[in-house]
């Protein structure tokens, strides 16, 4: 075997081998199988379109179990009447199966936090973009020449936002890849199968699901700044733009 072939073999072996780097607990909006480690907590702030803001706090109770709450407003910044969300929302996740060389990590969880406005007055009782509700998520990570690379997918069922007439299960998939220790690229697809029937379809602003992309920048240790470009498959008969949002996440230990 020539030296050139040995180099190629080592390169592709490193690319395909699983690594110990834990996956993110969320991509842009979809959950992953990653959980916070014991004794750590995360605070995140999502700045939405139209002056909306969601604040979240999660803690790693064990290395497998994390619990959190979130709350916000669809127009916290602006000059219109302030519209708070009707209640704090819950985020719970438990890692059932650890990731290894041949198997992805698998987690089950509940996330009742949706995105955008909450439609309460018209009896729909749902967010612009529905929450994931109960879900099962799988994540597999590899070490690329640049850093961590992860593939994430899952199925979810929203049991809280069904007054719009669509209670179908939903599918989601996404990936993240590090370009260097500071920058990562994220992309995800939420099929929105629970937004394609009756009133739900009239409410939906996507055309064939939500395609989201983001750049995540870790400019100091434990602090992440994320620039999100959401709903790239927007329905141009209802909206004429995709959503530009910012998310800030801080992770620390007790």
Overview of this protein structure:
There is one protein chain. The strands form 2 sheets. The chain has a 12-stranded antiparallel barrel with strand order 1-2-3-4-5-8-9-10-11-12-13-14. Strands 6-7 form a two-stranded antiparallel sheet. Helix content is 7%, strand content 46%. The chain is mostly beta strands. The chain has helices spanning 3-16, 199-203, and strands at 40-47, 53-60, 65-73, 89-97, 105-111, 115-119, 126-129, 133-143, 148-157, 170-178, 183-190, 210-220, 223-230, 243-253. The chain has one domain (3-253): monomeric porin ompg (Porin, Beta Barrel), CATH 2.40.160.
Summarize this structure as a short list of keywords or feature phrases:
254 residues; Porin; two-stranded antiparallel ribbon
Total of domains: 1
CATH class: Mainly Beta
- Total helix count? 2
First CA to last CA: what distance? 52 Å
Q: Largest beta sheet: what is the strand line-up?
A: 1-2-3-4-5-8-9-10-11-12-13-14
């Amino acid at each position: 075997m020539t030296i050139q072939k040995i180099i190629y073999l080592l390169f592709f072996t490193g690319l395909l081998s699983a690594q110990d780097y834990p996956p993110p607990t969320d991509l842009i909006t979809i959950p992953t199988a990653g959980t916070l480690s014991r004794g750590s907590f995360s605070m995140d702030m999502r700045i939405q379109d139209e002056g909306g803001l969601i604040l979240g706090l999660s803690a790693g109770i064990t290395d497998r179990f994390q619990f959190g709450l979130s709350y916000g407003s669809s127009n916290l910044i602006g000059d219109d009447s302030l519209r708070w969300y009707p209640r704090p929302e819950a985020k719970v996740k438990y890692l059932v199966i650890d990731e290894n060389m041949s198997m992805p990590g698998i987690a089950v969880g509940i996330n009742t936090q949706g995105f955008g406005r909450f439609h309460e007055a018209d009896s729909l009782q749902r967010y612009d973009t529905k929450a994931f509700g109960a879900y099962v998520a799988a994540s597999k990570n590899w070490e690329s020449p640049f850093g961590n690379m992860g593939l994430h997918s899952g199925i979810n069922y929203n049991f809280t936002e069904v007054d719009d007439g669509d209670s179908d299960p939903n599918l989601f998939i996404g990936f993240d890849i590090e370009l260097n220790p500071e920058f990562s690229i994220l992309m995800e697809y939420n099929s929105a199968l629970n937004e394609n029937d009756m009133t739900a379809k009239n409410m939906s602003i996507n055309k064939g699901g939500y395609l989201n992309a983001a750049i995540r920048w870790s400019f100091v240790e434990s602090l992440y700044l994320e620039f999100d470009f959401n709903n790239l498959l927007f329905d141009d008969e209802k909206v004429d733009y995709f959503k530009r949002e910012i998310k800030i996440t801080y992770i620390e230990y007790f």
